[in-house]
Structures are given as structure tokens and as C-alpha cells.
Amino acid sequence: MTKNSIGKRKNGFVPVRVLQRTAAIMLPFYRAIAKNGAFARQWSRAVVATNLIAMGRLLKSVSPRTSGLPLGTNGIGYFVAFPTGNFRLELAAGVTIPPGTAQFIFEARAHRAVARAILPLYIQLARNTCFAAAFSKAVGREDRRAVNRMVRSLVRTPALVSVDVGVEQGGIALNFKFPFSRFVYRNLLFLQTP
Question: Is the whole model's pTM more than 0.90, yes or no?
Fold first, then answer.
């Protein structure tokens, strides 16, 4: 892979259609986590147990369009991968505790709080093509000020402590710290190699 293929991308970090499809497919899942405590607890147990079969079943039950998409967990978070049209890269969406800070813990309460906070952002990404295009371009250029402004205009919680741009091979991380948890939780949209 060349440096240009993983460095700053002037046209956006992913095509707008990929970003919108990812947000639209993740929305029902984040809604279910935010609104259904029993579902969120089942999901957290499956993440901690690294039970991909249970995670796949739960995910598909609320967002059928996730069927067949790659899913991963490391016991402290999860990712769903979406094709980008570039066979060397896929867009991953998920929530995790930063590696090295915890082992086999994923609090349903914190996950629900993250999901509630990010719903307005994912709604805009899924439904507003102009917003999604501007967002993808800003992330691709690693324009921290623009990305921070766009995110914070929609994610309105004091628990959002920072927005990182340029994570992994390109993408963003929204970092949340809740008073009831000792861990930081990160909502990520980033590019990875399949």
C-alpha cells in the first residue's frame, strides 16, 4: 500500500455512499442499545465472552442488513466492517475501551450512554448527503477543527472529552468519559485492512 493510499485524502476518507450506508445500517443497532437495557446487557456479555455467534445473532435481530458483514471483538469492544469499494480497505464502526486499559470488561451502561450520544450524528450521516460529504472530506483532510465542530454540534454531552482525527489508516474516534465508569469508551469510524 502506498503512503498516499493511507495518508490524507482530499476527496474524503471514504466515498459518501459508503459512509451513509454504514451509518444507516448501524443506526438500528445503536437505537436498540440506547433504548433496550436487556438487549444492551446481552450484547455486553457477548462482547466480554468474545462470542461472535451471539453478537452476530443479536446484531442481525435489530439490523438485518448487517447479515454477512465481518464482525470482531477483543473482549473490550467490537467492530462491524463495511466494504469501501477498495479491496484493500474496509470501514469499521464500533465502540471499544482503549487497548491496554482494561481486559474483558464492556459496561452496558456506558455503551448505552455512548449510543444515546451518537444517535444524532449517525442520523445526519445516514440521511443528510451534504453533511456526510463535508464530514468525509474533513476527516480525509484530517481537519480537526472542522470535524470537532461538526461532531460537537450533534453530540451534545459533557462526557465527550475529545475527538481524534486520523486514527488507524484514516478515520475518527469520539472519546467519552462518564462519571460512573473508570474507563474511556471510544466510538470509532476508521479504515482498516481486511
Answer: yes
